[in-house]
Amino acid sequence: MLALRLARGTHPLVLTRRLLVAAAAAGVGFLLLCTLGYAVGHPERSSTSALRLLWCVLPLAATVQFAVAVARTDPSTRPRPGLSAVGLGPARLTAIAAASTAVACTLGSVVALLFYLHLRGDITGLPFDGAAAELLAADQPIPLAAALTLLAVLPVVAATAAGLALRPRTAPAPPEGAETTMPSGLPWGVALVAIGLAIETYAARGGAGSGLPLPGRFDGNPAGVLAGWVLTAAGLALAGPGLAHGCGRLLQAVRPGATRLLAGRVLMDEARRIGRPLGVVSAVLSGTFAAASVYDADTGSDAFGPLTGLGAALILACTTATLLTAALESRQGRAHTTEALLRIGAPPTVLRTAALLRAGALLAVFLPLTWAVAELAALPLTG
Fold it and tell me: What sections of the protein cross the membrane (predicted)?
């Protein structure tokens, strides 16, 4: 109840972010229900139904990541002086954040269920009722318990992830005068990228892997190729903070001025916060470019159906929104530093120039990396 009252009094921008989470949850719920409908309509293809359900894990994970990022930037769950005296300590605020995330995802799941029943023709009296009856197996009854179980997965997982991400923790204070240390995931991320590309190359050249049918006529891809891409994506996400930290170091190299020093230090401090979502976006874009190049080369392939397109759009939209939300969180985290710099007379143009330098450094590193991984991923498939 307290989470609902806080939601009613929130800023419109915060409420918009929660509604975006609900919209993403609705898309994931619709994909899950379509997978259930396929399983009901084709009971003899149980393995295909299981693989279709496996495909839904990717947009579900992207939506959970976005929901956690939105929960981290929610001002109503930020510890403030005086709240502990009325029983709203860090643990209670974490519970409120998890409950707010569950409410948003549950709203999206309900919308998905209503839209699914409407397209099946079970709910009439509205435009397009029964428009996808054949695709959604309208001639077969949908098991209600199975549908509700699938729809409950995202709210439970997202609320749990938000609670774990925002749980109270005590971090040791850094030594006085220390510099920021580079994140330790860069070597492991590079190793995962190399392993993923090697597995993808082996699976594509072997040609004997089992097919991985995805929603919407995407049936010709060996399962090993997808496994290799998942490892490559995980490697880019793991290496992202280290690469962002390295960008900050490069900005401060070779006799930097005040602006480059400021840009580099801020980027090093924010490397862990924005590096991982930036690595995930790089992985998604590289996979998109690789898929586009593969199916441009095969003009006779009709690979992408509506549900595959919906899943890919959800992954791309949620990962991009997560990156923008992380950038907003970084801006909120350095608000006091910005105010202090303005109070001592720093020109606003210096802050804007430093922001442009940070963005330019990240683009200069991650855009070529994304292109290189996409080319390497597509090479064994097109060759």
Answer: 20-40, 52-72, 93-117, 144-166, 186-204, 224-244, 278-295, 307-328, 349-374
